[in-house]
Design brief:
DNA-binding, alpha/beta, six-stranded mixed sheet, homodimer
Chain lengths: 342, 342
DNA sequence: CTGAAAGCGCTAACAA
DNA sequence: TTGTTAGCGCTTTCAG
């Protein structure tokens, strides 16, 4: 008494045509091959029977899984969910769905996760992890895996990428602080092993130089990770090393939050003693004490753009790799003010 | 020159056995059916050839997709990523992967998303949305779709569920405030149309009564949504209505954050004028100004438990529905203190 | 324009 | 213990 799900054959026999005709009539791509009235009749009957095509059978035949893999370090980092939603905004209407894996910034885990994605026959990869090692990247490229890098460039390997305009983001942050009167600005950089960390650190040095501010190499410290803890460690290190400064450009918001911990720990008043700027404009920054000035990055757009590019490279595998840059903007809040002594 | 991916047949002919034997040898479940040395040889050869089974073919044959659907309102709500990770913690080792859809709390979208999940042949559903309407729930149950509800109970329909101990959470919050000396405590409840909102509101009333605190119905206001804006609106409404109170138990952290907006707007000092407790213990609550006291809910565990239960009901469809409750704990922070006039 | 036939890669009776 | 056979549900040549 369980009503079996109708298959293509059921529709065919109900309509008095061959299964192949039903297949053609139901697929918009091939519908033109079928006489219009027949197609209409088949479609109507399919609907009446409540027919739902079985995508797995189609996938087996066409060797396309209709899924792509999204590789991120950690979904609980508020940085990533908007990117995921952006990706799905584009993928879902295109008939694709998306398998998400977390690498926890562990190289071995990253490799294992990408393996499992390939095992599941994903048609392409969107990779938003910082530490993807080059051998793996090369391997993927050699195997002709369609992919797009998010938030990082691939030096040496020719892979499409979508990144925020990091150079401009740093410019905006430094300009904002310089405009407030700061002359000795420190930078708590992201890990040097990540392209984002390196690019931002370089951009910081030149932004500072271009404005004739104090360009002291001692004012740039690289954090071990993109995390609160690592940010706190780096700031402690900087404070203990002794160079004076009145403002910090943090490599991202998490690092900036690490600074807040150190401020509390050492009785430093923000923004009066030290101003801080973050990057990413995470949610709820306006609720912090003090609210955090940050460079807003269009995460959802980044996801959308990455998905579009991936679909392109799935459709035309030969296409040249593009590197897309998305523009950013500054959100001034309570964590930045004039330095204490003009 | 593109080396075709080897199939089962390739392995079979390389090993000089029948494809069925290879299938049996490679599948741990059926390996016992094959003589050990043969199995070993087949496995070795499969490895040498770099053979990877094609899950799509297996899925077609076994009519199992190896995927489950996870239905949430919005991934960018920090509430959900830990749940997602919990789910994946359990699913991945079991060989399942997980398709995530966002409903944006829109009933029509919810239906469409669940449809698309079913179309993709998911073997079960984990549903973490508040507004799932009963007709849909009934329909799913009638069709024998395995599912688990997260964070909500299903009154009337017999479906397994995993929820935090909402009653105890409210108890903890009220107890904490009562211990500080508060006697008139308000509750900004979640929407009454959600089971969580209703349960917490009821628990609040009885917690207040049980302690002999002022049980004024005017001190409970339901928010239109589980959001900052709705929380702010509700608090404004409460303040304008006039009943005095020295503390607020917010339906969740987002609603509590909405209170912060109103405090800033009206020059109310928290915790001196009004104390606030949230629920969920979202990330970065300790960095807020003031840091927010909150009831910690074990989100990742909730996800894990939901996934375990779903796997169970996939494996034994007949099993009786269980309702699991997970315990919660209070994190006291800066947003709660003694009332101004002890 | 439609039907016939074959097969995607794998598994599961059944037979030997 | 292994091989044989058949087929999951669909698409896609190739004929007609």
């Amino acid at each position: 008494m369980t009503p079996q799900k109708p298959t293509l054959r059921d529709v065919a026999s109900a309509a008095g045509v061959h299964p192949a005709t039903v297949s053609r009539a139901l697929n918009p791509e091939t519908r033109a091959l079928v006489k219009a009235p027949t197609a209409r009749r088949v479609i109507r009957i399919a609907e009446e029977l409540g027919y739902r095509p079985n995508p797995i059978a189609r996938q087996l035949k066409t060797a396309k899984s209709g899924t792509i893999g999204l590789v991120i370090p950690d979904l609980t980092n508020p940085f990533f969910p908007p990117i995921v939603r952006g990706v799905e905004d584009i993928l879902a209407p295109a008939g694709y769905s998306c398998l998400i894996v977390n690498t926890d910034n562990d190289l071995a885990r990253e490799r294992a996760q990408i393996d499992s994605l390939r095992f599941r026959q994903v048609e392409g990869l969107i990779i938003a992890t910082a530490y993807l090692d080059h051998p793996l990247l090369r391997e993927l490229q050699r195997d002709g895996v369609a992919m797009v890098l998010v938030n990082r460039r691939s030096d040496g390997v020719d892979v499409p990428s979508v990144t925020p305009d990091d150079v401009d983001g740093i410019e905006l942050a430094v300009e904002h602080l310089a405009g407030l009167g700061h002359r000795r600005i420190a930078h708590l950089a992201g890990p040097g092993s990540t392209s984002t960390g390196a690019v931002r650190a370089r951009a910081f040095r030149s932004a500072v130089r271009n404005r004739g501010l104090d360009d002291d190499p001692g004012l740039v410290v690289a954090c071990a990770r993109w995390s609160e803890d690592a940010g706190a460690d780096a700031l402690r290190q900087l404070l203990d090393a002794g160079p004076s400064f009145t403002a910090v450009v943090a490599g991202n918001d998490l690092i900036a939050l690490g600074c807040y911990d150190v401020f509390a720990e050492r009785g430093i008043s923000c923004p009066h003693d030290i101003s801080v700027v973050g990057i990413n404009n995470m949610p709820f920054l306006d609720k912090l004490g003090p609210s955090l000035t940050s460079v807003a990055v269009p995460h959802q757009q980044i996801g959308q753009e990455a998905a579009r590019m991936l679909l392109e490279s799935i459709r035309e595998p030969g296409r040249a790799a593009r590197a897309v840059t998305l523009s950013v903007s500054l959100r001034a809040r309570g964590s930045t003010s004039q330095p204490r002594r003009g």
